[in-house]
Specification:
Keywords: Carbohydrate metabolism, Endoplasmic reticulum, Glucose metabolism, Glycoprotein, Hydrolase, Multifunctional enzyme, NAD, NADP, Oxidoreductase, Pyrrolidone carboxylic acid, Signal
Radius of gyration: 32 Å
Mean pLDDT: 92
Shape: elongated
CATH architecture of the largest domain: 2-Layer Sandwich
Structural class: alpha/beta
Pathway: Carbohydrate degradation; pentose phosphate pathway; D-ribulose 5-phosphate from D-glucose 6-phosphate (oxidative stage): step 2/3
Number of domains: 3
Helix content: 25-40%
Number of helices: 22
Subcellular location: Endoplasmic reticulum lumen
EC number: 1.1.1.363, 1.1.1.47, 3.1.1.31
Strand content: 15-25%
Organism: Pan paniscus (Pygmy chimpanzee)
Strand order of the largest sheet: 14-17-13-12-11-7-10-9-8-18
CATH superfamily of the largest domain: Dihydrodipicolinate Reductase, domain 2
Low-confidence stretches: 13-21, 528-543
Number of strands: 33
Bound molecules: 6-O-phosphono-beta-D-glucopyranose
CATH topology of the largest domain: Dihydrodipicolinate Reductase, domain 2
CATH class of the largest domain: Alpha Beta
Length: 791
């Protein structure tokens, strides 16, 4: 067998010498040579590499490897190699000749034990010695599950590194971890065996021709795009990958990963970074591309649970039960469909929605990145006089069409009313089937280009690996930045029940979604199947807002959603009244989780709110920098401030961070805030103070037994919380009690006990600070949801 290989190598070597000067020998070891990926793409990609490169001075040997014993492995590999095909324009005789050479250079070997790897190394060296070839490098392609990585990596590192002057490249296929923690662990493990520059992590979407064209296209059309590629002109960006297949046959993998880990964290995120990154001067510099990608990750706004919707095709759970032998009662929560709204908080993209969406069992297979531009033109002449396809009033969009769909091929589409693009000669103008409409316009409304020669992503990437083009691969930093972004969302969705969908065309409008104010939601209500319970069906009147008294003050109680909506209405009414009477409205807000829904409600449903005349104050703050996610100000910023137009000078964060230190007594932050209040708020009497109530009876950051803030002259105080971060700044009870109105919002079952207790106690602020809230001349109103009030 080895003699045959050596003869084949010599023949190939002579061929090379005829073509040009010899550049060295490359050994390619395909681990998992008989697996699915190898059969479908990798052997064909290696054959293409051989066709492209063998005539340019390199010689090759291909080692297909697996755990299977030699004879059986050889047979399986021969099967995998049967279907190799040549480019369409190659003469059949040539094709047969090349195939034959390739087959002679490709041998199977079992790689199982450390000795097997040592033998491989010995054989490569012996071949080189025999033929007198100089070694250029070795490529190890890991087409194996990640649990096998460590062993293989150790063996390669200890016995299969090439000699001095030759390179080693190891190619890794996803999954690269399951979340940030596991990805870091795997990366650290691999880092003990390989240098960063030796690792090529594959994201096969980076090898798709339309994706690989994003940066070159932006580069070649800089002039036209420079003024357009920003928040002033882009309406939204959609990055979509729809599939018709489902997860049958691979639920073992899918059950652990789900659609977000499977394709959003990697493929769609990579496309997003290519669209959004600041364009490097040299778009083929791997180092510059990586740096600019990382800048995008840094600017991504953190995802909230409300940033995503998830679905699952109906037969999925049944498939899981069957394939993974789960009991009949098992129901999976793994999403097979997800749409996520992403925002990039930088000057270029602030406010532009990026929508990432993917799903299995949908109505069509298609992938694209679509940049939809705003249309700010008004056409005076009637539509029949508009210049065909050129009118500024027609939709304006740029689409990197990754593949499939009605177009059936990769393409770049540019609306004719945008600009005539320039593409490299490897792309040609294309024509589609007559009458074809894409993204709301006929194909004739676009300049449309497709690759002269279509190439499979893996074959493109193999060529880049061979040429050491690292900009097409995922570095460790890039990978961890992506997991860093996705992990919190994945955790927050872990127990969320996905919406069930029937699959295919039957999905109808069930998965359609909308977005606003940073949130994404299904357009249609879930068609719920109600299981009738005993007793009469509930009537709408059963859910009315309940009005009563709590601690002698008015109480408003309802289910949480209704309660929030009532409170938001009351706040708006108070604001409107205050502005009408005094020209301004001073509102002091608490932090924490209860008011988040209120902030969102105010941000999304209160268009008459007089924000321009509202001053916002903080009831309390944690002693952390204002940019810290723990800071109350950050919560306010994320859920309210960034969605409303409020003058900057009307926003009054607490000065917890002065002289680069946090809440130091000497910096007198509390006194500064008190002075600011006295200067701006008449009589230091807020129009409205929104408070919460802790399970221990605390309110604002006034905790039981607090030595300060419960009485006395001080308006603002530093306090200590029993939970972290311990140090706080807070409005004092005397200041709160000067307010014209105080609203206390209490939500959730966890508050049930304290609600009962506080209903019975008198005025005992030392034990229960909330009991000291009693505005001198203002009004106190309690807002409690049924969970907190009725338990
Ligand atoms: C893979 C995912 O990475 O990409 C699959 O694991 C998905 O679930 C596939 O089907 C889609 O790739 P393509 O090239 O068919 O669009």
């Amino acid at each position: 067998m080895w003699n045959m290989l050596i003869v084949a190598m010599c023949l190939a070597f002579l061929g090379c010498l005829q073509a040009q000067e010899l550049q060295g020998h490359v050994s390619i070891i395909l681990l998992g040579a008989t697996g699915d990926l190898a059969k479908k793409y990798l052997w064909q990609g290696l054959f293409q590499l051989y066709l492209d490169e063998a005539g340019r001075g390199h010689s090759f040997s291909f080692h297909g490897a697996a755990l299977t014993a030699p004879r059986q492995g050889q047979e399986l590999m021969a099967k995998a190699l049967e279907s190799l095909s040549c480019p369409k324009d190659m003469a059949p005789s040539h094709c047969a000749e090349h195939k034959d050479q390739f087959l002679q250079l490709s041998q199977y070997r079992q790689l199982k034990t450390a000795e097997d790897y040592q033998a491989l190394n010995k054989d490569i060296k012996a071949q080189l010695q025999h033929t007198g070839l100089r070694e250029a490098g070795r490529i190890f392609y890991f087409s194996v599950p990640p649990f096998a990585y460590e062993d293989i990596a150790r063996n390669i590192n200890s016995s299969c590194r090439p000699g001095p002057g030759a390179w080693l490249r190891v190619v890794l296929e996803k999954p690269f971890g399951h979340d940030h923690f596991s990805a870091r662990q795997l990366a650290t493990e691999l880092g003990t065996f390989f240098q960063e520059e030796e690792m090529y992590r594959v994201d096969h979407y980076l090898g798709k021709q339309a994706v690989a064209q994003i940066l070159p296209f932006r580069d070649q059309n800089r002039k036209a795009l420079d003024g357009l590629w920003n928040r002033h002109h882009v309406e939204r960006v959609e990055i979509i990958m729809k599939e018709t297949v489902d997860a049958e046959g691979r639920t073992g993998f899918y059950e652990e990963y789900g659609v977000i880990r499977d394709v959003l964290q990697n493929h769609l995120t990579e496309v997003l970074t290519l669209v959004a990154m600041e364009l490097p001067h040299n778009v083929s510099s791997a180092e510059a591309v990586l740096r600019h990608k990382l800048q995008v990750f840094q600017a991504l706004r953190g995802l909230q649970r409300g940033s995503a919707i998830v679905g699952q095709y109906q037969s999925y759970s049944e498939q899981v039960r069957r394939e993974l032998q789960k009991p009949d009662s098992f129901h999976s929560l793994t999403p097979t469909f997800a749409a996520v709204l992403v925002h990039i908080d930088n000057l270029r993209w602030e406010g532009v929605p990026f929508i990432l969406m993917s799903g299995k069992a949908l109505d069509e297979r298609v992938g694209y990145a679509r940049i939809l531009f705003k249309n700010q033109a008004c056409c005076v002449q009637s539509e029949k006089h508009w210049a065909a396809a050129q009118s500024q009033c027609l939709p304006r969009q740029l689409v990197f069409h990754i593949g499939h769909g009605d177009l059936g091929s990769p393409a770049v589409l540019v609306s004719r009313n945008l600009f005539r693009p320039s593409l490299p000669s490897s792309w040609k103008e294309m024509e589609g089937p007559p009458g074809l409409r894409l993204f709301g316009s006929p194909l004739s409304d676009y300049y449309a280009y497709s690759p002269v020669q279509e190439r499979d992503a893996h074959s493109v990437l193999l060529s880049h690996i061979f040429h050491g083009r690292k900009d097409f691969f995922i570095t460790t930093e890039n990978l961890l930045a992506s997991w860093d972004f996705w992990t919190p969302l994945l955790e927050s969705l872990a127990h969320k029940a996905p919406r069930l969908y029937p699959g295919g065309a039957e999905n109808g409008r069930l998965l359609d979604f909308e977005f606003s104010s940073g949130r994404l939601f299904f357009s249609q209500q879930q068609p719920e199947q109600l299981v009738p319970g005993p007793g009469p069906a509930p009537m709408p009147s059963d859910f009315q807002v309940l009005r009563a008294k709590y601690r002698e003050s008015p109480l408003v109680s309802a289910w949480s959603e209704e309660l929030i909506s009532k409170l938001a209405n009351d706040i708006e009414a108070t604001a409107v009244r205050a502005v009408r009477r005094f020209g301004q409205f001073h509102l002091a807000l608490s932090g924490g989780s209860s008011p988040v829904a209120l902030f969102q409600q105010l941000a999304t449903a209160h268009y008459g709110f007089p924000w321009a005349h509202t001053h916002l104050w903080l009831v309390d703050e944690r002693c952390v920098p204002l940019s810290d996610p723990e800071s109350n100000f950050q919560g306010l910023q994320a859920h309210l401030l960034q969605h409303v137009r409020i003058p900057y000078y009307n926003i009054h964060p607490m000065p917890v961070h002065l002289q680069q230190r946090l809440c130091a007594e000497e910096d007198q932050g509390a006194q500064i805030y008190a002075r600011e209040i006295s200067a701006l708020v008449a009589n230091s009497s807020f129009d409205l103070v929104l408070l919460g109530m802790g399970a221990d009876g605390h309110t604002a950051s006034l905790f039981p037994q607090s030595p300060t803030g419960l009485d006395g002259e001080q308006l603002v105080v530093l306090t200590t919380s029993p939970s972290q971060p311990h140090r706080r700044m807070s409005l004092s009870l005397p200041l709160i009690n000067r307010a014209k109105k105080v609203a206390v919002l209490v939500m959730g079952r966890m508050k049930r006990e304290i609600t009962t207790l506080v209903s019975r106690v008198g005025h005992e602020p030392k034990k229960w600070p909330i009991s000291g809230v009693l505005p001198h001349s203002g009004q106190l109103v309690w807002y409690m949801d049924y969970d907190a009030f009725l338990g």
